[in-house]
Amino acid sequence: xxxxxxxxxxxxxxxxxxxxxxxxxxxxxxxxxxxxxxxxxxxxxxxxxxxxxxxxxxxxxxxxxxxxxxxxxxxxxxxxxxxxxxxxxxxxxxxxxxxxxxxxxxxxxxxxxxxxxxxxxxxxxxxxxxxxxxxxxxxxxxxxxxxxxxxxxxxxxxxxxxxxxxxxxxxxxxxxxxxxxxxxxxxxxxxxxxxxxxxxxxxxxxxxxxxxxxxxxxxxxxxxxxxxxxxxxxxxxxxxxxxxxxxxxxxxxxxxxxxxxxxxxxxxxxxx
Length: 272
Ligand code: NAP
Known about the structure:
- This protein has helices at about 25-40, 55-65, 80-85, 85-100, 115-130, 140-150, 170-180, 200-205, 210-220, 235-240, 250-255; strands at about 5, 15, 20, 45, 70-75, 105-110, 130-140, 160, 180-185, 225.
- The protein is globular and about 50 Å long.
- By secondary structure, it is an alpha/beta fold.
- NADP nicotinamide-adenine-dinucleotide phosphate (NAP) binds next to helix 10.
């Protein structure tokens, strides 16, 4: 079954499931994960300057023979580069490593207090010059997004944030919906840190699906782009095999009750 796409407010269409590439550093792990993903039909790859695998992704994509337009590449400007005012300059390096002349989505990785405004204006320029088809942010809270209204010519089309059944962020989701910002769920499996919840186990048994597939399907049903990471081929395959069943009202009610504000990654809520 092919992976559906979501329309962004700039008109571009993003595949709803992408392969997460954080901590997919070692060469053999990268190749295993990438090969399993292309075999399973993934066409969306989520990397970042800080992940250290932009070059590996560029090499791997070249070797597939897939047309550039068939693939969605996201990368992110690192905290350090944002803080140092090196967004545009470092992006030239990213394109070189990725061996392409544009990315589909370019994000600011984090709302770095001193630097985020200048970095966003540079992203707008990069987009205007054709280096990125879409631009967005990551780890932005409502406060950071509201502040952008004061300086942005265009608002982000995507906000990539930690999101899973144990961290549901309802206010942020409502804000993004109202502002036409598509939300990307990172660490959709809570970084693998909570794989024993009895409600999810029961729903998984009912649908003859795995625990992870229930967590991912919840993200899809909520309308997020979802970015699972795995270096295990069967799991890479399993993580897109989520479009042949649906969660019912009772399932969604049970999953809604699991929210416990559990953060497994960094917390931007106190960043001024
Ligand atoms: P995740 O996808 O929530 O979870 C990954 C963990 O779950 C790994 O330990 C993986 O193990 C395991 N796993 C994967 N599929 C599974 C399955 N079907 N059954 C059981 N276990 C499974 O974690 P994440 O890497 O933190 O997040 C995913 C992606 O989001 C990242 O790779 C990155 O692209 C993005 N991200 C972005 C930010 C940001 O600040 N913008 C921050 C964090 C993450 P194996 O690999 O051993 O199979």
